[in-house]
Amino acid sequence: DTGVSQDPRHKITKRGQNVTFRCDPISEHNRLYWYRQTLGQGPEFLTYFQNEAQLEKSRLLSDRFSAERPKGSFSTLEIQRTEQGDSAMYLCASSPYGLAGYNEQFFGPGTRLTVL
Amino acid sequence: GEDVEQSLFLSVREGDSSVINCTYTDSSSTYLYWYKQEPGAGLQLLTYIFSNMDMKQDQRLTVLLNKKDKHLSLRIADTQTGDSAIYFCAEKRAGNNRKLIWGLGTSLAVNP
Question: What is the pLDDT of residues A57-66, one digit of tens each?
């Protein structure tokens, strides 16, 4: 399977716990994005990497959220001291770099987080 | 989704055409996209249109863009039950080659 993969697919945690999600992009894609999607909403942009550099972060990404892409391949998204409001689907997408073009983003299946 | 708006629900009969509408506010949008999301599955790009085009056809899909009114539509011909899903409109703005701005999604129900 050469698509974007995410792990785990589901995570249930208690409020106050830390969680970490992993995203493996399509191997030749150097751009990687994290989005959050809650029920009845479209995806909301969280952050974006080009290779290992985190180039943009949304104001939605509070201090409790951190994302890394240490070798420019897979990425992790960590949420510390989870709150019930963090319950959502966390989506990862990747795209190839191009000087111009429609920048198709390929999405993974998402990690569904439930904070009790 | 505040800058991209879509109607939330659409119900059609199998075999009819479906038209899903989207409006956006930023005139600098360069590309506009339609994504499909099925339950338990990731978002799948259906089609896209460059902002200097007014129509694009791809098999059963027709995209119409009215840049003056900032209105985008997706027409699905001969709608099938497998087309039941949530359809998202998204835009990419000039100078921002990264994040997409998304609508809330239109839930399409196809009745046999």
Answer: 888 788 999 9
Residue numbers in B near A107 (CB within 8 A)? 35, 42-44
Helix, strand, coil: what percent of chain B each, to 5? 5, 60, 40
Q: What digits encode the pLDDT tens for the residues A4-28? A: 999 999 999 999 999 999 999 999 8
By DSSP bridging, strand B85-93 and strand A88-95 are unpaired
Q: How far B13 CA lies from chain A's nearest CA (Å)?
A: 23
Residues of B within an 8 Å Cβ radius of A: 1, 4, 31, 33, 35, 40-45, 48, 50, 88, 90, 92, 97-105
Any idea what DSSP says for residue B54? S
Nearest to residue B49, comparing CAs of B35, B36, B37, B34? B34
Contacts of A2 in chain B (CB under 8 A): none
